[in-house]
Each structure stands twice: as C-alpha cells, then as structure tokens.
Design a protein that fits this description.
The chain is of the alpha/beta class and 136 residues long. The chain has helices at residues 7-21, 39-44, 56-68, 79-85, 87-95, 112-128, and strands spanning 25-29, 49-51, 72-78, 102-106. The chain has a single domain, classed as 3-Layer(aba) Sandwich (Rossmann fold). It contains six helices and four strands.
C-alpha cells in the first residue's frame, strides 16, 4: 500500500495494486470513479471495472453474482447508500450465502444532502434578493 494522507487516493492506489496481484479482483462503482479514485484501475483493467450508474441495489446483486463465479468484487459507494439502499441485498444475496464481496464506502456521517440543500437555499436567497435571515 502506498502511504498517503488522502484516504481516497490511498484506496485508489491500493485497489490498483491489488488488481495487479490478483486477477480475480473486480471493481464496481455507482458513478463514483472520482470519489474513490478508481479511474486508473478502470483504464488499466477495463475488463474488470464496472460502472453500473446510480443503481446501488443492482450493483450489490451484480457483485453477488460475480462472487459466485469466483471473482472478488470491491463495491464502491457512499456510506448512506451502502447501508440503506443495499441493505436487503447485502443481507440476503451476500451475507447469508457468505460470499466474498467487499464494500468500500466513504462519507459516513457527512451531510451530503444537507450541503446540497444549503446550496439550493443560498441560490434561492440570492435570486430573490432576500437575506437568509429575513422572514419569508
């Protein structure tokens, strides 16, 4: 593993190294190549990289299927989606049959949705000419 203070970069470099060592490693992502620094893996091993789009539940099912065929899937998504959107698939498709699937998630506890709402509110206030503290 390459030491770095950036955990996402460290993951990207480590998964790339693992892909070089182990031919059964595959990476699945839900449009998060930038967040998980997996673009280099995708370029180096395009036949072992799968971007399923915004479809975390499907991604968990795909990973389960790959694991039954001897692959070792590394599934990348934000923590809120791994724990909430994929929960039933994690339990039923992956945990019960004890499949070798790795979930790697980030931004646990980060209020991503709240940040987006804040930006939307700020733009609304700016366009209306009102102050954020003024009454409606």
């Amino acid at each position: 593993m390459v030491p770095t203070k950036n955990p996402r970069l460290s993951y990207g470099l480590t998964i790339l190294e693992a892909g070089g060592r182990y031919k059964d490693v595959v990476v699945l992502t839900a449009d998060m190549m930038v967040s998980f620094q997996t673009a280099t893996f995708a370029e180096t091993y395009p036949d072992r990289f799968f971007n399923v789009g915004v479809a975390e539940q499907n991604m968990a099912g795909i990973a389960a299927g790959m694991a039954t065929c001897g692959k070792v899937p590394f599934v990348n998504t934000f923590s809120c989606f791994a724990s909430m959107r994929c929960l039933e698939m994690l339990r039923t498709d992956i945990a019960y049959p004890r499949l070798n699937v790795k979930f790697v998630s980030c931004n646990a506890g980060s209020p991503l949705a709240q940040e987006e709402q804040h930006i939307m509110r700020q733009r609304t206030w700016q366009s209306s000419g009102r102050s954020p503290t003024s009454p409606s």
